[in-house]
Design goal:
Elements lengths: L6 H11 L2 H8 L6 H11 L1 E3 L14 E3 L2 E3 L3 E3 L5 H4 L3 H12 L3 E3 L7 H7 L4 E5 L5 H13 L4 E5 L9 H5 L10 H7 L3 H10 L17 H10 L7 H10 L3 E7 L2 H9 L4 E4 L13 H12 L5 E4 L5 H9 L4 E4 L1 H33 L12 E3 L10
This protein binds flavin mononucleotide.
């Protein structure tokens, strides 16, 4: 990956490889896309105050989560259409995560199977579900996750209905990708992507083929999947899944401290504070903005994780200073895998790792547990008090 220095370089390469209709789908937000700006701005507005004259010669960014030690505090969030960006991308992401010893969350609408993930990365693969209209499908998937040897289930709660993604609507992407003559013509300018499409056609949403009826085509499977969403999702569903799933159970998309407390009260093991990368409801606060209130409400009761707008190692440290115990990112590794397969995904993770290491040294923290709000200052705030 010559010439790639940061996540933005990977983004540029991904943009070159993908037809506009696909790139805009992964890049876009909802409504006026305020969420994309808010997520990025929240990190930019923080100021970090370094401490010097500390021995930083040995630095350790390993992080313990659910009894397992990961080498770095940044995992891969679920991104449904990875297989549309590059064939086999879900498993490439899983492999890169396994090799970097960080978690990878496979999306509930991925193009590879729970079973393949269990074979490739049983210790690093987590699986994300959405509720399906037919509850027996969700329940069967939960069973499959356990049978495959995976230990962590993530239930995404912030998709009560599909969202208003105007960028994609304008490009002719309804519930799923449809190649019109116009988009096909544009795709010809991205031959590597187009070759994959011509060779393999539409990617199968492989976890769902068994529910879609015998010999269903990729299109039929996709139609079946979209007939299962949106499905009713309530706390009763969470309780039901909790009963069925004995492993670590994480809710993704929690943005309110009362929801976090309720999750804890019914036996949830962790939450990911997230606004779906600005793709569901516009004008929410950024996850970083609500993080301190949620951490304050929960105390040490369960780990609070975060995703949304994380593009730099320093962003990871800021989230840790504000109480996060782990951080995920979605688009950066998606850019990476699109641009360069496993090597590209690995590059994105390596960029985060390197930036975290440098930033830890710069601010005078040798372990992530040393990070606290005392390193932080909001742009408009005054310097920390003496003695703090
Ligand atoms: C293209 C794309 C597809 C996504 N698909 C899913 C999904 O299937 N399930 C899910 O829970 N979240 C999904 N998300 C949200 C991500 O898991 C994550 O919350 C978000 O990407 C974090 O923001 P970031 O991209 O700024 O890092 C998706 C995000 C993107 C960009």
């Amino acid at each position: 990956m010559q010439g790639v220095v940061n996540v933005d370089d990977l983004r540029e390469l991904a943009k070159k490889r993908l037809p506009k209709v696909v790139f805009d789908f992964i890049e876009g937000g909802t409504d006026d896309e305020v969420g994309l700006i808010t997520n990025a701005r929240a990190f930019r507005q923080m100021r970090i105050v370094p401490r010097y004259l500390i021995d930083i010669s040995v630095r350790d960014q390993s992080t313990k989560l659910f009894g397992r030690t990961y080498s770095s505090p940044v995992g891969i969030a679920p991104t449904g259409p990875a297989g549309l960006c590059r064939r086999g991308a879900d498993m490439m992401l899983a492999e890169a995560a396994r090799d970097a010893n960080v978690p990878f969350i496979m999306s509930g609408v991925s193009s590879s199977t729970i079973e393949d993930l269990g074979k490739l990365a049983p210790d690093h693969g987590w699986y994300q579900i959405y509720s399906a209209v037919d509850p027996s499908i969700s329940e069967d998937m939960i069973k499959r996750v356990g049978d495959a040897g995976l230990k962590t289930l993530v239930f995404t709660v912030d998709v009560p209905v599909g969202s208003n993604r105007e960028r994609s609507i304008r490009r002719g992407w309804g519930a799923q990708l449809k190649l019109t003559w116009k988009t096909k013509f544009e795709a010809l300018c991205h031959p590597a992507w187009m070759m994959e499409w011509l060779q393999h056609g539409r990617p199968y949403l492989d976890n769902w083929t068994r529910y879609a009826g015998p010999n269903a085509s990729a299109k039929k499977v996709a139609d079946f999947v979209w007939s299962q969403f949106p499905a009713p999702m309530t706390w009763q569903h969470v309780e039901r899944y909790r009963e069925l799933w004995k492993g670590n159970f994480v809710l993704k998309g929690i943005m309110h401290p009362d929801d976090a407390l309720r999750a804890h009260s019914i036996g949830i093991d962790g939450i990911i504070v997230s606004n779906h990368g600005g793709r569901q409801l516009d004008n929410t606060p950024s996850p970083l903005e609500v993080l301190p209130t949620i951490c304050h409400a929960l105390g040490d009761r369960m780990p609070v994780m975060l995703d949304g707008g994380v593009r730099r190692g320093l962003h990871v440290l800021i989230a840790f200073c504000m109480g996060a115990k782990f951080v995920f990112q979605g688009r950066p590794t998606l850019y990476g895998v699109t641009a360069g397969g496993i090597a590209g995904a690995a590059k994105a993770l390596a960029i985060f790792r390197r930036e975290i290491d440098i930033s830890m040294a710069q601010i005078g923290a040798t372990r992530l547990v040393d990070l606290s709000p005392q390193f932080l200052m909001r742009k408009e705030a005054v310097m920390p008090r003496r003695g703090s």
